[in-house]
Write a structure and sequence with these properties.
The protein contains 13 helices and eleven strands. With 388 residues, it is an alpha/beta fold. It folds into two domains: 252 residues, Aspartate Aminotransferase, domain 2, CATH 3.40.640; 131 residues, Aspartate Aminotransferase, domain 1. The mean pLDDT is 93.
């Protein structure tokens, strides 16, 4: 393949994690279903350089995906897990212990919050939530026992964009590890490790898989030292990924950037339609100048994906929103995003955020690959039911 470091990102996505010579010229790494891996002899069993020892720990397909995502994110190496949440929990358990102080961004993915509040606190970790717009002000929250600063940018549901370089600079000055949920960007729109973040985590169930049919998570480490800590914890927890999910997500690499570009284009049209609606109290997307961190998004990101949120005016109650949502033909209710189809998911912001005071029904929209005119026509008829 030549010097792959000189290729543009689009070209790298076509070839990452592929080596047809290893599989008799087969273009895509085949599905590798295995638990047992045989050694050619006893010496191989005792040889520390033997590459594959047990399917759960590593196998040709998991290694191919981990190499590909590490190349995409610009990291040393990666671990894979059965879901995005499994990757997040494994990563946090790798780097915090009883007595540690964890600074968690208040706009994090809700299951991350639940894991921190229930499991980590039960294990003796102290959790403190911070405003996503704190930037260098994070220094005022650091304690002697602060072990990790956890970021997610843009934030879940409300899409605040954090000043990652400013936070990382403070973290490094205090020898604190940083972890960032990079699912929004899928490694394409933003590369946290290039900005000094130590571990980048993603749910591959979103844009990496791209077709709403996989459960897979990944964590990419910046250095060999951090990778070994991460891998050791993953092995001890039994963290691993399924063969079909790895195969489908690696295949998703080939169309990842094209799908994200199309999703962004489609999202612009739908967001512009919502901007004109008097029923809307507030819109949330990093591309909006009114969004918290818009200037940081312009500075650090190469684009947006297809997800945004709508806060309706307080006079519209649940029964009104129900008529609107249930009348839509192209926006079913679903708890995910990043697939080819459009979706809606209600968000209970008062349960997810520390100081959420806004009144009104909150919906997150995932814009898929349908024709935007059809989507707008569907919303047009749906809004008539909202006002019934």
């Amino acid at each position: 393949m030549g010097n792959k470091n000189n290729y543009y990102k689009e070209t790298k996505l076509m070839h990452a994690g592929r080596n047809p010579d290893d599989y008799f010229g087969v273009v895509n790494p085949p599905i590798c279903r295995t638990s047992t891996i045989l050694y050619k002899d006893l010496d191989a069993y005792f040889d520390p350089n033997t590459k594959f020892r047990y399917g759960r720990v590593s196998n040709p397909l998991s290694n191919a995906f981990e190499e590909a995502i590490s190349e995409l994110e610009g990291g040393f190496h990666a671990i894979t897990a059965s879901s995005g949440m499994a990757a997040i929990s494994t990563t946090l358990l790798s780097f915090v212990k009883a007595g540690d102080h964890l600074l968690m961004v208040d706009s994090c993915y809700p299951p991350t919050r639940f894991f921190a509040n229930k499991q980590l606190r039960a294990y003796g970790v102290e959790i403190e939530y911070y405003d996503p717009m704190i930037g260098a002000g994070i220094k005022d929250l650091i304690r002697d026992n602060t072990a990790v600063i956890y970021l997610e940018s843009p934030g879940s549901a409300t899409f605040e964009v954090q000043d990652v370089p400013a936070i990382v600079k403070i973290a490094k000055a205090h020898d604190i590890l940083t972890i960032m949920d990079n699912t929004y960007s899928a490694g394409v729109l933003f590369r946290p490790l290039e900005h000094g973040v130590n571990i980048s985590v993603q749910s591959a169930a979103k844009y990496l898989g791209g077709h709403s049919d996989v459960n897979l998570g990944v964590a990419v480490a910046d250095t060999e030292t951090h990778y070994k800590i991460l891998k050791s914890c993953a092995m001890n927890l039994g963290t691993c990924a399924g063969a079909e999910d790895l195969y489908l997500s690696l295949r998703g690499f080939r169309t990842l950037e094209m799908r994200m570009n199309y999703a962004q284009k489609n999202m612009h049209s739908i967001l512009a339609w919502f901007e004109k609606r008097k029923e809307v109290q507030c819109l949330y997307s990093p591309i909006l100048e009114t969004n918290r961190g818009y200037d940081l998004w312009k500075r650090d990101f190469s684009g947006a994906n297809g997800v945004f949120s709508v806060l309706f005016r307080p006079e519209y109650q649940r029964e009104d929103i129900t008529r609107f949502v249930d009348s839509l033909a192209l926006f079913p209710v679903g708890s995910s995003w990043g697939g080819y189809e459009s979706l809606i998911q209600p968000q209970d912001m008062k349960s997810y955020r520390s100081n959420w005071t806004e009144e009104g029904f909150f919906l997150r929209f995932q814009i898929g690959n349908e024709n935007s005119k059809d989507l707008i026509d569907d919303l047009e008829q749906g809004i008539l039911n909202l006002k019934a």
